[in-house]
Each structure stands twice: as structure tokens, then as C-alpha cells.
Task: inverse folding
């Protein structure tokens, strides 16, 4: 075991800087916990948790009523775009449906990360 000694004043300054950084990281983490509007969800998640058909989403895409991205043959939508559709009453669902979509997307995302970490 190696022991490193520093002056008390230097230790206090270092400790204060670490506390400032920790508070900053906590604030950013809390902000991103509540704001998942930039997350992307796929067709399956939108259809399942908002209880809309794939054909409905296809009509919205075809009519340019929803912006989306297509990657590897799958369509993805930003949560902010889904929120806009709900706010504008293009899709009539309750706030509970949207929160359910966010909650289940988080769970799916965590499972995917854990699977990658275990490989």
C-alpha cells in the first residue's frame, strides 16, 4: 500500500472541487432522468404502448404528419415527436399511455445495455 501525503489546505481545495463536480453531474443526471424527449423509439414500442396500429403509423409517415428515421429496415421516432402528435391530437391517447411508453422504453434500454455488458 502506498501512502501519499498532501497539505491540509490542498486537500480541502481538492475536496471542494470534487464536490462541485459531483453536484454538477447530479444536476445533469436529474435533468436527463426527466427529459427523455430525445430518445428514439421504434414502431413496435409506439404501437404497443400507445395502442395504435402499424397501418396508422404508416399513414402518418406517408402523409408527412410525423418525422421519423429509417435504420436497418426499421422506423424510429423521437419521443418529442410522439409527444407533439399527442399534443396536437393527431393520436388521441392519455398522458398515461405516453408515460407507459417512456417507462417501458427505459426498461428495454437497460436490458439491452445489460445484455451488451454481459457479452
Result:
Amino acid at each position: 500500500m502506498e501512502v501519499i501525503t498532501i497539505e491540509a489546505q490542498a486537500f480541502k481545495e481538492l475536496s471542494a472541487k470534487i464536490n462541485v463536480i459531483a453536484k454538477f453531474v447530479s444536476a445533469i443526471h436529474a435533468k436527463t432522468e426527466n427529459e427523455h424527449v430525445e430518445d428514439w423509439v421504434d414502431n413496435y414500442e409506439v404501437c404497443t404502448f400507445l395502442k395504435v396500429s402499424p397501418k396508422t403509423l404508416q399513414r402518418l409517415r406517408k402523409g408527412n404528419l410525423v418525422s421519423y428515421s429509417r435504420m436497418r429496415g426499421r422506423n424510429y421516432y423521437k419521443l418529442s415527436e410522439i409527444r407533439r402528435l399527442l399534443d396536437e391530437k393527431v393520436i388521441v391517447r392519455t398522458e398515461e399511455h405516453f408515460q407507459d411508453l417512456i417507462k417501458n422504453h427505459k426498461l428495454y434500454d437497460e436490458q439491452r445495455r445489460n445484455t451488451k455488458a454481459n457479452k
Q: What stands out?
A: The radius of gyration is 22 Å. The first helix runs from residue 8 to 34. DSSP finds five helices and three strands in the chain.
